[in-house]
Every structure is written in C-alpha cells, then in structure tokens.
Design the sequence.
C-alpha cells in the first residue's frame, strides 16, 4: 500500500544475499549441498507464508524479504556449486572433459528460466487486469497481485523442496 517502502524493501531483499552468501560455505560443510538447498527452499516456503500472513504489516514484509533473500542466495550458490561436480562426474564416467559446456548450459538454463518466469509474471499481471496506464489499480487487481506474490513463490518453493527431498540424491 505504501509505494515509498517498495524501494527500501527491494533493496533490503537484494542486500540480504550479499550477507547470506558469506555463510554459504559454512552451511554447505555442515549440511551438505542437498541440506543447504533444502534450507533455501524451506526459507522460500516460509517467506511466502510470512508474506501472506503479514498483509500490510511492514515488519512482516521485511521478514518475508529476509527469507526470500536467503532463498535466492543459497539456491543460486548450490546450483552453481553443483555444475563443476556434474562436470567432474561426467569426466569420471565418460572420460570426456566438458566443464565449459556444462557451466555454459547451466548458465543458459538459469537465464532461460528467468526469462520464462518474467513472461509468466507478465501473463499473471495481464490476467489480473493490471493496467500500467492507470494511476491506481482496482482493489481486485491489487488483491490478486498480493495473492500471486505470496502463493506462487510458496507453491514453487514447496514443489522444489519436495523434489529435492524425494527425487535428488546429492550430498
């Protein structure tokens, strides 16, 4: 509801990964890569739940942003840490060194996923009736954006969390 706070909240959420990434090597040693990824996705689920419960409570929104920042930093750190592991496994299994290809493909997939997510966000906004030319959006559009901002990241983090727990056998 307060547009002046949006910049501060986004800056906070962007700054959190800069601090959280400092703890990533320690967490990975203690929890392993799978455990660190589980923690990251659990923080994502927590972020969405806190956001939905908080409503317009600014303190709650900052807590949700803190958890979202932790999710982003740890998840990306683990994904980039797994790429060399995958390349080393491929070298061991096939005798073919493909480190550059693996990292390039992984980076491309991350960028393509980001582009798909951005398009998805645009489609959601369009479906909710968002009109950038309006000075203020309708109450239904604002409520839809609020729900999408909480429910969708929570659902995707939960799906990722369950997939990591039950489908991926990484250490």
Sequence:
């Amino acid at each position: 509801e307060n547009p002046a706070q949006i910049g501060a909240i986004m800056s906070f959420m962007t700054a959190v990964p800069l601090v959280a990434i400092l703890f990533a090597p320690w967490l990975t040693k203690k929890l392993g890569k799978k455990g660190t990824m589980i923690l990251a996705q659990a923080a994502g689920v927590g972020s969405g739940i806190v956001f939905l419960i908080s409503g317009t409570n600014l303190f709650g929104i900052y807590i949700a942003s803190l958890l979202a920042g932790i999710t982003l930093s740890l998840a990306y750190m683990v994904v980039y840490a797994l790429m060399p592991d995958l390349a080393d496994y491929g070298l061991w299994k096939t005798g073919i060194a493909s480190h550059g290809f693996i990292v390039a493909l992984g980076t491309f997939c991350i960028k393509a996923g980001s582009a798909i997510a951005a398009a998805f966000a645009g489609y959601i906004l369009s479906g909710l009736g968002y009109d950038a030319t309006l000075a203020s959006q309708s109450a239904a559009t604002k409520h839809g954006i609020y729900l999408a901002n909480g429910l969708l990241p929570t659902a995707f983090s939960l799906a990722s969390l369950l997939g990591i727990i039950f489908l991926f056998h990484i250490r």
